[in-house]
Amino acid sequence: MNADIRPIRTPAEQAILASLGTVPEGGDRLADLRRAAARAFEENGLPHRRVEEWKYTDLRSLMREAVPVAGAAAVAEADARARLLRGVEARRIVVANGAVVPELSDLADLESGLTVTTLSAAIAAGDEVLSRLGGIQPGRYDAALALNTALAKDGVVVTVAPGATIERPLHVAHVFAGAHAAASYARSLVVVGEGAAFTYAESFEGPDGLAYQANAATEFVVGDEAHLDVVRLQEDGTGAFHLATMLFAVGRESKVHTFSFSLGAGVARTSLYATLSGENSHVGFNGASLLKNRQHADTTLYVDHQVPGCESRELFKHVLDDSSRGVFQGKIVVRQAAQKTDGRMMSRALVLGDDAEMDNKPELEIFADDVQCGHGATCGAIDDELLFYLRARGIPMKEAQSLLVQAFVGEAVETVEHDGLREALVERAEAWLASRA
Amino acid sequence: MAMLDIDNLHAKIDGEHGKEILKGLSLKVNPGEVHAIMGPNGSGKSTLSYILAGKEDYEVTDGSVTLDGEDLLEMEIDERAAKGVFLAFQYPVEVPGVATMTFLRASLNAQRKKRGEAEISTPDFLRLVKDKAAHLGINQDMLKRGVNVGFSGGEKKRAEILQMAILEPKICVLDETDSGLDIDALKVVSEGVNALRSPDRAMIVITHYQRLLNHIVPDFVHVMNKGRIVRSGGKELALELEANGYAEYQQDAA
C-alpha cells in the first residue's frame, strides 16, 4: 500500500502552484532553469521548521495568505513610493512590482564600460550575458530562490567592462505599489569584469500593513582582481514578506564587500551564498537588522571557500525591540583544497524588548588542516553602567539609549566604504531610533 | 540655607536583603566650599557619591538630600546633572562607538535644554573644548576616540575633569579621583580641579589619602566610618589621619 506522504498544500502554496502553471514552455537554457525550479518547488513546497536552514523561519506557517502574482504598477504611485536613498548621488533604476519602470529609470548616458539593461530586454534580444544567469547555485533547495527563478520576468542586468572603474553607484530601487497584496519577483544579474570597480545599491519599500511578497534575487559574478561593494536597504512595509537571495561567485584576488540593512517587512529572510573560487580574495559580508513590534528578520549566510588563501569576514548586528525576533545563521565551509583560509564570523544582538528573541546559529565546516577560522555570538541588553554614565552627564534615558544603540550599529555600518551611502544608512538608523516611542 | 543639605541619610543596597550602607549621614555644603571626605574602605564614601548622582542600585530608607532647597532624591539622574550635580567617577566606563566630542556635546546640550537654554553653536562648542582640553593635556586624537576607549587610567581621570570643566556644575563630587594616578598626572588633574574652584561652586572630594589634599586644599575634612561622619575638622585633620590612620575611629564605632 502506498501512503501519500505529501503534506497538505497550504492556500499560499496552492496559489504559488497556480502561478507556476504560467511558466512558459520553450527550448532554451533559461526556460529549462525555470522549469527545473518550478519542479523543485512542486516537490518541496514552502520550507518549514523541520528543514534545518529554515528552522527559525517557518515560512510554511508564516506565509498563510494566497496572493496572485503582481501586475504592473502605476508609474506615478511607484515614483511616489520610491523614497529611499534619494539623497545619494547615484544612477537610479526603479523596479516596481518586479518590473523595471523605464520612465523612472536613468538608463541613458552610461559611463564608458557600464552597460545596464533589463532582464526582459536581454531575454528578448537573446543577450549573450544571460549565459551567466543561474550560474551560481546554492547546492541545496532554496524555496525563495526557486520561486524567483521560476517566476521572475524582469530585473536589472548590469555588466562592468574589464578594467573599468565606475565611480557613481548604481541604485536599484525596488518598490511595491498597489492596494492589494500580491507577489513580486525580480531577478538581477551583475557581472563585474576583471580589474573593474563598482558599487551597487538596492533598496526595498512598499505600503505598510499589506501582506505583499517581495521576492528578489541578484547574482553577482565578480572577475579576478575586481572590487565590488554592495549595499542593500530593506524597508518593506510592515505586513510584507521580504524574501531575498544574493549569490556571489568571486574570482582571484578580488574584493567584495556587502552591507545589508534590514529595517522593514513583517517577515524578512535574506540568504547570501558566496562561492570563493579564485585564490587570495577578500570578502566582507556585514549587516544589521533593527526590529520592533512583531517583526521577524532572518539572515542566513553560506560562504564556501573552495580555493586557498581567501579571507572572509562577517559581522552582523541585531537590535531587537518589543517582541521582535532576529535570526542569524552563518555557515563557513572550508574545502580540503582551501588551505590558508582565514574566516571570521561574528553576530551580536542587543535586546531592548522584554519579549524579543534572538536565534544565533554559526557553523564551521572545515576539511582543510591549515586554516584560521572562528565565530562568535553575543546577545544582551544595554549595559546599565553605560546608561548610568551617560545619564549622570545629563543625557535623558531615551537619548542615552539611542546613543548606545547607534554606537552598537555603527560598528557595522562604518564598514560601508561609500560616503554617501554610509551617511544615508546612518540617517535611516537615526530615523528608526527617533520612531521608538 | 546650605546649597547641598544631606540630613540623617540612611540607605541600603536595593533588594530584600540589601545591606545598609549609610546610617544617618549628615553634611551641609555651602557655595565655594571644598569638603574632603576620608575614611577606610567600606565606610560608604562611594555609596554616598552614587546616591547623590542617582544610581539606581540603592534605596534611601530615611533622611533627605536637598540641593538649593529642592528634593534631590526625587529627581531623575539626568535632571540632577542639569541642576548641577557632577560625579567624577572612580572608574569611568568606556563607551565604544560614542566619540568623546559627540558625548560632550550631547551632555552639554541636554543640560542646557533642560534648563531652558539654547543649544551651543558648533563654533562656540569647538572653541570651548579646545580651550579646556589644552589645559588638561587632552589632544584631538583622544577627543575623536570613543569615550574613554583605550585611555590610560590617568587619561580617563583627565577626561572626567574635562567633562566637569565643560559642564560647569554647581556641586562636584570627586570619587577617589587620585586613584591610579602617578605624581605628574595627579598634579595635572589637581590643577584642573583647582581651576574650577569658584565662590559659586562647591566640591566634595572623596579620598583615602592625604596626598591629594596637598594639591586640592579643602576647607573642611570629614572622617567617615560605618555609614556616617564621625569627625569633622579643618584641613589639619587630614594630616592627623595620615599620621595615625583610621584605627581610632574604627574602634570607636565598634
Number of domains of chain A: 2
Describe the oligomeric state of these chains in a short phrase.
heterodimer
Structural class category of chain A: alpha/beta
Give the name of the CATH architecture of chain B: 3-Layer(aba) Sandwich
According to DSSP, the number of beta strands of chain A is 19
Q: Into which percentage range does the β-strand content of chain A fall?
A: 35-45%
**Largest sheet of chain B at a glance?**
6 strands, mixed
Fold and architecture overview:
The complex is a heterodimer of chains A (437) and B (254). In chain A, the strands form 2 sheets. A 10-stranded mixed β-sheet of chain A has the order 2-1-5-7-9-11-13-15-17-19, covered by helices on one side. Chain A has helices at residues 11-20, 29-44, 59-62, 75-81, 119-125, 143-151, 384-391, 397-413, 419-434, and strands at residues 91-96, 99-100, 114-118, 156-160, 170-175, 183-192, 197-205, 213-222, 227-235, 241-250, 255-262, 267-276, 282-291, 296-305, 311-320, 325-334, 342-351, 357-366, 372-380. In chain A, helix 2 packs across helix 6. By secondary structure, chain A is of the alpha/beta class. The model of chain A has no long low-confidence stretch (mean pLDDT 94). Chain A is globular. Chain A folds into 2 domains: 67-382, no CATH class; 383-437, no CATH class. Chain A is 22% helix and 36% strand. Chain B has 254 residues and is α/β, with parallel strands linked by helices. Chain B has one domain: P-loop containing nucleotide triphosphate hydrolases (Rossmann fold). Chain B contains 10 helices and 12 strands. Chain B has helices at residues 45-53, 77-83, 100-114, 122-135, 140-144, 153-167, 183-195, 211-215, 236-244, 247-253, and strands at residues 4-13, 20-29, 34-38, 58-67, 70-71, 85-88, 95-99, 146-147, 171-175, 202-207, 220-225, 228-233. The longest helix of chain B has 15 residues, at 100-114. Chain B is globular and about 55 Å long. The model of chain B has no long low-confidence stretch (mean pLDDT 93). At the A-B interface, helix 7 and helix 8 of A face helix 2, strand 7 and helix 3 of B.
